[in-house]
Write a structure and sequence with these properties.
Chain B: Belongs to the ATPase B chain family. The complex is a heterodimer of chains A (361) and B (164). With 361 residues, chain A is an alpha+beta fold. Helix content of chain A is 59%, strand content 11%. Chain A folds into 2 domains: 70 residues, no CATH class; 217 residues, no CATH class. The N and C termini of chain A lie far apart (56 Å). The chains are: A alpha+beta (361), B mainly alpha (164).
Chain lengths: 361, 164
């Protein structure tokens, strides 16, 4: 009963926030402004941003300013994102250490030395500006750190429960977290890697599992405005590369033999299989990367697209339909957060298990 | 296209964040948690094994008790049987002894009776012979004193003899 109430409140809040987001993107400050562009709004919310946009209030965006860190040919340059004054069209120029920066579609460009204003070609590429290397603390980095803080609090306090009690009985938060941890150990690591070697990979698998899961969940929470961390290809790429590194570093003789000189088949077949196996080595992490990215981003896009229907039809009567469908998708997304974290972890464990498997023929 | 182009900045921060998270959680969370969980599981396995051992021991003890009890019972039976046999034997022996003793006494008594009887008979015979001789003496004396009377005596004696 309580859970249901909680869910109701949760989803109401989610859709109010998403509706606000749509409202914000509609730019209602000018009646004659260009028509609502669903694609632009959705892409804006799915992609990373340099400031943390919460809500528009009285036509003024309320945001959290985030630090912008750039590596230019003059070295490190930092300033707060508030200096752009919420401009994302490249019209506001920020001067810092004699360098000029503009922000256009959430990309920061450095103007050429003598340019005063950025100009664009037909494909919206700046003609007189270059992109410095951007190490900014973006919305996604910020949210990632929030998730790290949450993870640290949750799991270190879980660990403290065991340290305090002398009989090692899980109470409080440990009672909730322990089944999840034991699940990762008994249903993922043990069957995939094997009884003798799984222990070494437990910290990696647990961290990946909970890191992805928590970021997936945070992507659905309205206040965070659907910060799409685990639906960002840079994030999934990084985790996939970690799995690739762990897999290949733990690969034994048997693993490399299966890649370069498949045992048990005739020589022409060995030569034929070698390039396939080498490609397979890279395809595995690439599939991990794309699967997580596509699943999470797709969920965000569907919910936002359903909400956009209200603004496309320009009638509030579509709202019940939109909210109903978005509620349905939102429920599915709750499940997907856990499933995608599980799949990423299972497949990582499977690849590690394949790399550490002993020869048995 | 932006959507599927990984941004270098986010890759950089994700690497740092993930490594930080991995190291901190490994040291302060996963190690103590997994250690505690496996310690507890080992404890449970051990407790179950020792409970099983205790149960077996109890069973053994029980079996031992049963065995000892059975042995004691058997011994008691044996003792009782022996005692019974001894009792019967003793009674039988006593009976036999008594009988033989009695027989012996009876035989002795009979023998004594027989010999007494013989002695008595011999005495009687002797007395009868003495008596006969005495009578004969008296008879002879009387005859010698008086002929008539001797005759009378012979007649009366004959008459007596006839009466006998």
């Amino acid at each position: 009963m309580t859970l249901n109430t909680f869910k109701n409140v949760f989803f109401s809040a989610l859709f109010i926030a998403i509706s606000f987001a749509g409202y914000a993107s509609e730019n209602p400050d000018n009646e004659n402004d260009k028509a609502f562009n669903a694609k632009e709004m959705i892409m804006h919310h799915v992609k990373d941003a340099h400031e943390f946009h919460i809500v528009d209030w009285n036509n003024k965006p309320i945001t959290i300013a985030l630090p912008i860190i750039l590596w230019t040919d003059q070295g490190l340059t930092t300033f707060m994102s508030s200096e752009f004054h919420h401009d994302d069209s490249g019209s506001h120029v920020v001067e810092k250490d004699g360098q000029k920066f503009v922000k256009f579609h959430e990309k920061i460009y450095q103007l050429d030395a003598n340019a005063q204003k950025v100009t664009f070609d037909a494909e919206h590429h700046p003609t007189n500006a270059s992109q410095p290397t951007d190490f900014s603390i973006t919305k996604n980095v910020f949210m990632m750190w929030v998730s790290v803080i949450v993870l640290l609090i949750v799991f270190i306090s879980t660990a403290r429960v065991y340290k305090k009690s002398n009989n090692k009985v899980p109470t409080g938060i440990a009672g909730f977290m322990e089944p999840l941890i034991v699940y990762v150990r008994d249903e993922i690591a043990r069957p995939m890697i094997g009884e003798h070697k799984y222990k070494k990979y437990m910290p990696y698998l647990l961290t990946v599992f909970f890191f992805i899961w928590v970021n997936n969940i945070f992507g659905l929470i309205p206040f965070f405005n659907g910060a799409n961390v685990s639906g960002n290809i840079a994030f999934t790429l990084t985790l996939a590369v970690f799995t690739f590194i762990v897999t290949n570093l733990s690969g034994n003789k048997n693993y490399w033999k299966h890649i370069f000189w498949m045992p048990g088949v005739p020589v022409p077949m060995k030569i034929f299989l070698m390039p396939i196996e080498i490609v397979g080595m890279f395809v595995k992490p690439i599939s991990l990367m794309i699967r997580l990215f596509a699943n999470i981003t797709a969920g965000h896009i569907i919910i936002l697209a359903l909400m956009s229907l209200i603004f496309i039809f320009e009638t509030v009567f579509v709202a019940p339909v939109s909210v109903g469908f978005a509620l349905f998708i939102g429920l599915i997304e709750i499940v997907v957060t856990a499933i995608q974290a599980y799949i990423f972890t299972v497949l990582s464990a499977l690849y590690i298990g394949m790399a550490t498997e002993e020869a048995h023929h | 296209m932006d959507l599927i182009t990984p941004g270098l900045g986010l890759v950089f921060w994700t690497v740092i964040t993930f490594l930080f998270l991995l190291i901190i959680l490994k040291k302060f969370a996963w190690k103590p948690i997994l250690g505690a969980v496996s310690e507890r599981e080992d404890g449970i396995v051990k407790a179950l094994a020792s409970a099983e051992n205790a149960r077996k021991e109890m069973e053994n003890l029980h079996a031992d008790n049963e065995r000892i009890l059975k042995e004691a019972r058997a011994e008691r039976e044996l003792l009782l049987k022996d005692a019974r046999e001894i009792k019967i034997k003793m009674i039988d022996d006593a009976k036999g002894e008594a009988k033989s003793q009695a027989d012996k006494i009876i035989v002795q008594a009979q023998e004594a009776i027989e010999s007494e009887k013989k002695a008595a008979m011999a005495e009687l015979k002797k007395h009868v012979a003495d008596l006969s001789i005495e009578i004969a003496e008296k008879v002879v004396r009387a005859e010698l004193s008086n002929k008539d009377k001797q005759m009378q005596l012979v007649d009366s004696m004959l008459g007596e003899a006839k009466l006998n």
